[in-house]
Design brief:
This protein is 7% helix and 58% strand. The chain is mainly beta.
Length: 324
């Protein structure tokens, strides 16, 4: 009987130990309650963990593809048994799997991966250069010639481009606004936009604000049009001022007829700074393999001729097949 009782007591002790062990194990731990499977660059991400025991101090570390860590993730106390972090994924981190690791004192740690998805960056028109020149006149107020170099970094043509130019005074107030439209800026190319505006009185302009909007992007279309022998010409009646930009336009397209062209120019000084710009038109139809003289004569007279050293001319053109 004594042996049987001893065996019974030993069995009860082992069973009690087995029963207590899981309860003790369940008294602490950490588990992911929420984590997205993927996050787009530049957007917010959120991680929530459940923690036992409550009141544990937890930290989150996120390391992106290539080893870049996420900065600015503070420690969180899981006061109610839950810890949450929300942060913005940098737009310039490398796309790919990222590792998120949560560590909580008295609870342990847990790690999980989330996928960082690259953001589709919308193509934009960049303003590479801009500048202006003013010329006061006692009878005509002030004339301002401006020039803007626009760059299309997209692999597609930018169509129906709207360009708004604000004229800003030293007190940051606007004195005026000019709007121009460009039919197309070719893929991976620059466009020289020049124009002149007039003010009825003094125009203490200190800078330009340029706003560019594109209606649509389309697959690139290439026409073989060449500008040659472009040069600056002073005014005939007052050679102190820039009068025209002149040269040749050649249709080197093998099959299409050039119907008409809108010409725009930006003028630079010897250091490459923009002095201003102007425009012109060419209405003579050009069959393949022919050329014509072109002259841009609008918008240049506020620019002193001795300051003008170089010019960039851009063309918006229309085409048709022979016989149409």
């Amino acid at each position: 009987m004594l042996a049987t009782a001893a065996r019974f007591i030993a069995f009860v002790a082992v069973a009690a130990a087995v029963a207590v062990a899981p309860a003790s194990a369940r008294s602490s731990g950490i588990a992911i309650a929420f984590m997205p499977k993927k996050v787009v660059q530049g957007e917010d991400a959120r991680v929530t963990v459940s923690v036992r025991p409550s009141g544990s101090r937890c930290t989150l570390g996120v390391r992106y593809q290539g080893g870049t860590p996420q900065p600015g993730l503070p420690a969180v106390v899981a006061a109610t048994g839950v810890a949450t972090w929300t942060w913005q994924v940098p737009s310039d981190v490398q796309a790919g799997p990222a590792a998120a690791t949560v560590r909580c004192n008295r609870a342990g740690s847990v790690q999980r991966r989330l996928m960082i998805v690259g953001r589709l960056v919308e193509p934009k028109i960049a303003v590479l250069k801009q500048g202006f020149t003013t010329r006061p006149s006692p009878l005509q107020g002030t004339r301002l010639s401006y020039g803007v170099i626009l760059h299309n970094d997209s692999a597609k043509d930018a169509k129906n481009v709207s360009v708004q130019v604000n004229f800003v005074m030293g007190d940051n107030n606007l004195l005026g606004t000019d709007s121009q439209r460009v039919d197309v800026i070719g893929a991976k190319s620059d466009y020289a936009l020049g124009h002149m505006v007039s003010f009825p009185g003094a125009a203490p302009i200190t800078r330009l604000e340029v706003v560019v909007q594109v209606e649509k992007y389309e697959a690139p279309v290439t026409h073989n049009l060449v500008l040659a022998n472009m040069h600056l010409v002073p005014q005939t009646f007052d050679t102190k001022w820039l009068g025209t930009v002149e040269g040749e336009m050649q249709n080197t397209d093998p099959s299409l007829i050039l119907q008409s062209a809108t010409l725009s120019a930006v003028v630079f000084d010897g250091a490459g700074n923009v002095l201003g710009g102007g425009s012109g038109f060419a209405f003579q139809q050009l069959p393949p393999g022919t050329r014509q003289f072109i002259q841009l004569g609008m918008g240049f007279d506020p620019i002193q001729f001795e300051d003008a050293a170089d010019v960039m001319v851009s063309v918006s053109s229309s085409w048709k097949p022979p016989g149409s």
